[in-house]
Amino acid sequence: MGNARLDYIWLDGYEVVNIRTKAQIHPDSAYTGALEDTPNWGFDGSSTQQAEGHDSDCILKPARVYPNPFRSNAYLVLCEVFHRDGTPHETNTRHKIDRDREAEFWFGFEQEYILLTSNGRPVGFPDGGFPEPQGPYYCAVGAHRVEAREMIDEHWDACLEADLGVTGINAEVMLGQWEFQCFGKGALRAADDLIVARFLLHLISEKYNLIATLDPKPISGDWNGSGMHANFSFDYLRDTGGKEYVEALCEGFRPFHQEHIAVYGAGNERRLTGSHETASIDQFSFGASNRGASIRIPLYTSTHDWKGYLEDRRPASDADPYLVVDRIMRTVSIAHEKAV
């Protein structure tokens, strides 16, 4: 069968992080995808905003291994970045997450994105003009109502083949806008799966000559932006909850609003305007079934004895999921103590 192909994946050091990748052949023909048998590798950090040219070597340390959905005897290797002395790189946001608590947190990300053609216009938008106003496109079916469904289905199939927690897809409010949902039991698993799902999305978009942009508002005007809503739960919220507790927990997020906004993605001020199903970036709010709030208390929670999960609607589509889960976990730790 030959030696396995390993495609290494990591996040670079740009303000809006990009996914980087390169591949090699595993030296052992008996390799079966075990993390402990996956070697470290290196890369030129001076080409990814992660090092200077005079000291450019960075280390890729494998963090999770997935089957490659496009090739046999091949794997996708999600990595953390380290300095050559073995210390975590400043851009290694995965390393920030509390390993002692992350397992009890479940996250479900709603990753919105917009497909652009080579001229920078959303797919389906006529040259020099605009389609019909928003209304007929959300969860739509039919020509001129949805675009690029073949690519979207191919992406979902690839995610399932790679054993990612992608649980659903739908066309979104703007023509050319789509969403996939990615769920994981454990903050690290959820965020890891999202990064690899993004990687597969960008990889497949090459085949269709489309750009899957995570810009939170690439088209100004009366069009929805793109978010990465973060649904989250933890042991007490799932098992005990209660209306007073849930409302007090949400209120406990208020003092940390700006700390959340600071790590919830670049360009979010263009999206969080108080319109188009968003709250204002300057004000914190929460409410049951309120998609115009910073945090929505879902119908499931309010109808199941106020036990379940919450949805933070503030993260932008380009947000780093590791920073998002780290900030939510930190705030929950403080807010929970005051709410019980």
TrEMBL record:
PANTHER family this protein is in? GLUTAMINE SYNTHETASE, GLUTAMINE SYNTHETASE 2 CYTOPLASMIC
Chief location = cytoplasm
One GO MF term attached to the UniProt entry: glutamine synthetase activity
Residues of the GS catalytic domain:
89-340
| InterPro entries reported in the protein's UniProt record | Gln_synt_N, Gln_synt_N_sf, Gln_synth/guanido_kin_cat_dom, Gln_synth_cat_dom, Gln_synth_gly_rich_site, Gln_synth_N_conserv_site, Glutamine_Synthetase
* Organism per entry: Aliiruegeria lutimaris
Q: Which cofactor does it need?
A: Mg(2+)
Its keywords, alphabetically, are: ATP-binding, Cytoplasm, Ligase, Nitrogen fixation, Nucleotide-binding
Query: Mind telling me what this protein is named?
Result: Glutamine synthetase
> What do we know about how this protein assembles, alone or with others?
Homooctamer and homotetramer.
Domain GS beta-grasp: from-to ranges: 2-86
From the broadest rank down, the organism's phylogenetic lineage runs: Bacteria, Pseudomonadati, Pseudomonadota, Alphaproteobacteria, Rhodobacterales
What PROSITE patterns does its record include? GLNA_1 (PS00180), GLNA_ATP (PS00181), GS_BETA_GRASP (PS51986), GS_CATALYTIC (PS51987)
Q: Which Pfam families match?
A: Gln-synt_C, Gln-synt_N
Family membership, please give it.
Belongs to the glutamine synthetase family.
Which Gene3D superfamilies does the entry mention?
A: Glutamine synthetase, N-terminal domain (3.10.20.70), Glutamine synthetase/guanido kinase, catalytic domain (3.30.590.10)
What biological function has been recorded for the protein in this entry?
Catalyzes the ATP-dependent biosynthesis of glutamine from glutamate and ammonia.
The catalysed reaction is: L-glutamate + NH4(+) + ATP = L-glutamine + ADP + phosphate + H(+)
According to the UniProt record, what class of enzyme is this? ligase
The highest taxon in the source lineage is Bacteria
Q: Where in the cell is it found?
A: Cytoplasm
Q: What is its EC number?
A: 6.3.1.2
| Cellular component per GO, a single term | cytoplasm
Q: Which GO terms describe its biological process?
A: glutamine biosynthetic process
